[in-house]
What does this fold into?
Amino acid sequence: MTATHLQTTSASAVVEARRAHNLKLARKSDQSRATWFPLVLLAVLTALPLLQFTGNYNYLLHLVLFTASYAAMASGWNILGGFTGYVSLGHAVFFGIGGYVSGMILARYGVSSLITAPLAGLIAAIIGYGVGLITLKVRGPSFIISSIALLMIARILFDNWGFIGGANGLTLPTNSLSAEWSKLPYYYAMLVIAAVSVWASYRIKHSKFGLGLRAIAKDEIKAESAGINTRFYKVLAFALSAFFVGMAGAVWGEYLTYLRPNIFLLIGVSANLVLMSILGGKGTIAGPVIGAILIVALNEIFVALLGASEINILGTGVVMILVLMFFPLGIVGTLAKSGRLPRLLNWD
Amino acid sequence: MAEIIQILILGLALGGVIALMGSGLSLVFGVMHIVNLAHPALIVAGAYVTFLGFRYLGIDPILMMIPSAIVMAVVGVVIYKLIFEKEARSAKYSEMTVLLTFALAMSVEGLLGVLFTNTHRVTSPAYATDAFFIGNVFIPKGQLYAGVISLTLIAGVALFLKYSRLGYAIRATTQNREAAELLGVNVNRISIISFALGLALAGAAGSLVSFVFSFFPAKHWEWIPMLMSVVVLGGMGSILGTVVGALVLSVIAAFVGTWIGATWSTMTFFLALFVILLVRPQGLFGEKPEMS
It folds into this structure.
């Protein structure tokens, strides 16, 4: 009787000690982390539209919005591609699903995508869950190819489905704001989505779930034998990553004011997500955001200097080859490995 | 009945071309375990080489197979030297090479876009629009020639692999890289040769494709899952399997295309890929789950 009692107390003491130790570690990493930096960045971006009072900065707002949408999607992609190690080239599908779900609701019932974006994300996540059940059975090259096939199937379906406008797409009503303020709702919505995606991927990475995902990326068989329900974890990661991509797609559709399969269901969109995450640092929190900023800037430079989208495709491909060959850990990953990651970029 | 024979013949002819398109992919995977996503993009490049020869020099697209194959083989050696030789030592080799070839496919597409614009092209030799008639059944000459030439070429490659000394070495490397190396095969040289041979097949396929399909730089994206389904169905690395897979799937696609609708015929290939995933959860390439 007393023996068991003793045992339980000592066991709880061990748990207690471990928890204290973990807290100490967490506090230590908290001190080295510059949590204020993303917050300040967010505050600056929130105040940015004030510039509109001093002149026309629509293009600047557009660029920030565009970058934010990619930061959100790349962060979402990173949950599957970075944490779990399953590289998907089909995530443009969820971008399209998000855009079309919200766009159809807007076109039929006049409810803005700013309200329906979470619903669009949810539907993208449900479809992602279903697809994941099939395609996540395989890994490595097989998974990558199945994700390309998914995109091609979605493209044919969207191109031929009359209800959603087929290949000609769908025109959405524009909002009634004046030209200088019309971008603002989408600007803030995209900023919120990006912030939520980054925050969520941080929370996921530091949860038990995220630990499981990272174990899967390292060695799936060992993870399985350690008692992780790898199948459920993977599929859930797929669904979560689809959720954020879908939300970004929803707002993007209304912002563009038209939906067309050849805007949303592009392999180039998927390629950008992969490239951004890998360039910034796969599996890190700041990586996809940094990658999004750099790639959007690079695209702007390509288009401004050379002016053709073909050059843009060529440039994206060449940059991707160079990054993969010489820089596979990405910016954050490489700096962190050599211990030179500036505190500003340590969001993990 | 005549309709069924008609569809069957069209499917088989197209299947022959698709088999040639997939055979290089299969060969490269067998020897090097590279899933070359840039293969279809390089087929498009071969089609453009043929297009140039046809339009500006008036050379028949079928004859253009030779220069096109040579150009692509040279491109293959350059690509291998620049990219894959270094990656051969990488730990995450197979995943890395897929991403690299994906990026390569984008680069090729972009380059073709810059050089040739995004206009749909097709070479138009006289036989491309002509047909044989046997009773009620008509056989378009272009597709028939392309299919027969493709299958002949594949048979030639298969004989080469089976009976030549170099072919022995390539097959040995496919079966067991380490053992082949132990027996004195220069595995690196064999890799370069088979990569070049694979891309030469892509170039030759490009010439035939140039008058069978219309093409533009982004055309290759739909060929990636199409060829993958064919190659995977037949067993990755086996050229005979690729032929069988191509013929079976394109006959099915031909029936789907006629009876259900033309847009759904390409869907056959993509859905086949998913069905294979469902039936063979161990992976498309018959490997056991990778352990890293």
Notes: The longest strand of chain B covers residues 131-134. Residues 2-218 of chain B form one domain. Chain B touches chain A through 52 residues (CB under 8 Å). The CA atoms of residues 13 and 143 of chain B lie 6 Å apart.
